Amino acid sequence: MANLKDIRRRIKSVKSTQKITQAMRMVAAAKVRRAEQRMKGARTFTFRLQQIFSTVLGQTDLTSLSTATPNSTLSVLKPRNSANQTIGLLIITSDRGLCGGYNTNIFRQAFITIDTLLNEGKTPVLFLVGNKAITTLKKRYPTVKIAETLNQLGVEPDYRIVDAFCHQLVSAYTGNTIDSLQIITTRFKNLVTYEVENKPFLPLNVKTIAKEVETALGKLPVDDKAGSQKQVLPELLIEPSPEAVLETLLPMFLTRLLYGYLLEAIVSELASRMTAMANATDNAKKMIHTLTLQYNKARQAAITQEIMEIVGGAEALVKA
């Protein structure tokens, strides 16, 4: 009977867990749909902003950027001539767990990158997004500098907070705290697939960003395809100067890029959590089935034992 009580208690516990995982899967599914819509909208906006940015950049004399002040935002368009000994790493993870192997996959890439930089004699500087990144990397690399952290963004990040964080990243580059900046994050593909990526962010490579945005959109909008190679662009008059407009436009463009990366990471996290909770629910069903069989076998054995005891006692009375 003690065994039956133990199995019954385990079945009750697993059923309670199954209800929780079902509820968490439904919540994640509802959130991921809305987050996916925001992400796709951000992709389109970033593409349009990239078009404007490229147009203004095409009217700018890039050779004049070398005479810009060292702390100017425009310096992010010019690669450093240094040996790139100080490398900034922006690592984006989630604030919470229970999302399958999402954070584990990001940490695997982050560990490889940091260890490689240390072995090459370079100095990594960490910019961390998400509680998981902050707690894990502090323990694993206590001697590596953590320059800035950002957490508790939620499903829909506050654009002002992202803008302030992006300003800190740019300031670290323009102030020569770092020689370059890489981002380790995830790119959302569909509800069951995402990719961990390690890509450069600063200095800004406009051509690479253009290809990346177009790839994220899947294809160019219809009105941009027609005559995209042979289209004659109108002559533009940019006031007060292309450099001044670019100085204003560049921070907005960088913030939109970072905001898009964060939205991609959030959707990937929610999709991973939805999949993890679905798998947990299925595993709970299998466990309940297995425990139910064990319970029925144990119950049948207990009943058989009682019947044999009764029959044995009756035979003893007859013989007496």
What would you say this structure looks like, in words?
About 4% of the residues have low confidence. A 5-stranded mixed β-sheet has the order 3-2-1-4-5, sandwiched between helices. By secondary structure, it is α/β, with parallel strands linked by helices. Helix 3 links the parallel strand 2 and strand 3. 61% of the residues lie in helices and 13% in strands. The chain folds into 2 domains: 62 residues, Helix Hairpins, CATH 1.10.287; 250 residues, ATP synthase, F1 complex, gamma subunit (Pyruvate Kinase, Chain: A, domain 1, 3-Layer(aba) Sandwich). Helix 1 crosses helix 5, helix 1 runs antiparallel to helix 7 and helix 4 crosses helix 7. The longest helix is centred in the last third of the chain and has 78 residues. The chain contains 7 helices and 5 strands, in the order αβαβαβαββααα.
